[in-house]
């Protein structure tokens, strides 16, 4: 995968709506907000990248495996389209990086001793909360 990846035109579905939020006299007449829909399962991405994209687990991904990106921060439709494409490319680039496998390590002797000392202190505090015995 190259960092400047761009999806094919037939892999993207565009929808244009009116942007939310304040505007001027122009806001209720023009559909500047852009919704990009990218079907991850039907795309031409490598299978490993598809799997990592489908494991994202955020609200932008539907149950059907369609990634929905909405861009509405700019006043022009063209700039919102560019922003949506950039965000899609960033997500794919992030999914294209293979995560480094975690190496199992053991706790150091010092960290084990600090942990046990902390537990002993805490046990002493809790023991002090008990009922006082008459001697």
Question: What are the key terms here?
Answer:
alpha+beta, Double Stranded RNA Binding Domain, elongated, 135 residues, 3-stranded antiparallel beta sheet
Give the terminus-to-terminus CA distance: 77 Å
Order of helices and strands: EEHEHH
Contiguous low-pLDDT stretches (5 residues minimum) are none
Main sheet summary: 3 strands, antiparallel
- Rg (CA only): 27 Å
CATH architecture type of the domain at 9-96: 2-Layer Sandwich
Helix percent band: 25-40%
Which secondary-structure class do the elements indicate? alpha+beta
What fraction strand?
5-15%
Identify the strand order in the major beta sheet.
1-2-3
Helical run tally? 3
User: How many β-strand runs?
Assistant: 3
What name does CATH use for the topology of the domain at 9-96?
Double Stranded RNA Binding Domain
What is the mean predicted local confidence, pLDDT? 85
Q: Any idea what the shape is?
A: elongated
What's the CATH first level of the domain at 9-96? Alpha Beta
Describe this structure in words.
The structure is a single chain. With 135 residues, this protein is of the alpha+beta class. The chain has a domain at 9-96: Double Stranded RNA Binding Domain. 35% of the residues lie in helices and 14% in strands. The protein has helices at 47-54, 77-96, 109-127, and strands at 12-17, 33-39, 66-71. The chain has a three-stranded antiparallel β-sheet, covered by helices on one side. The radius of gyration is 27 Å and the shape is elongated.
